[in-house]
Amino acid sequence: MELSEHFQELRSRLFICLGCFTVVAAGAFYLFPYLWSVIQYPLCHSEFVTLVNLSPAEGISVNLLVACLMSALVCSPIFLYHAYAFCVPAVPEARKRTFLFSVLTASLLFFAGAAFAYFLAIPFLFSFLSRYSDSAVQMWSQTSYVSFLFRFEMLFALIFQMPVAAAFLGRTGIFDKSFLQRHFRIIVFLTALFAAIVTPPDLLSLFWIAIPMLLLYGISLITYRLSWRAK
Questions:
Q1: Cα–Cα distances in Å, from 192 out to 2, 62, 154, 185?
Q2: Among 4, 54, 85, 202, which one is least packed by beta carbons within 10 Å?
Q3: Quick check: helix, strand or coil at residue 178?
Q4: 106-118 residue pLDDT tens
Q5: How far apart are the C-alpha atoms of 61 and 142, rounded to whole Å?
Q6: pTM of the full predicted structure?
């Protein structure tokens, strides 16, 4: 396939993705009152918080922001498929199954990380933040709340890519076979520190966040060793 044909294929796939994104975003904008109850779920244990608009147009901007973010989430399988279909011709035949497995695994871990943050980590964090200061009324801007929520969603979605990243590092052979195992204590400390920051100051909440992340690191150790041997 010539270079011009590659660009034509890329353009057509981008147009399809953009069209899907626009249609879903328009639907999400119309269904905003129903989606807003979903967006507010992480505040279910934060009864001291009141969400407010701080500018005349903030309601519209929040509506647009939520519509675009929800559309990106819903359309992500379509984006992933077209990215895979565009890249797979350049992958050697012997590596296509591995490439497909890596893409699917990364996608599943991405959604697992987002779900973990939405149902567990962020509600704990908001519960702690809403009770942290008794000297002021907790009135959060809708824009700040939505931005904070989706930033943490993306953070945990990326953290859950650890096994895929470990497999890639093992496959490249940049580090030796026992690299991740040697730094186990540092990883445990950083995981406990991160869990302590994003959870209320009690051991049960810390364990709820730290243990799944340590299990994720254990899986990363296995994928790293297996990929290092297969390189």
A1: 52, 34, 20, 11
A2: 4
A3: coil
A4: 889 889 989 988 9
A5: 10
A6: 0.81
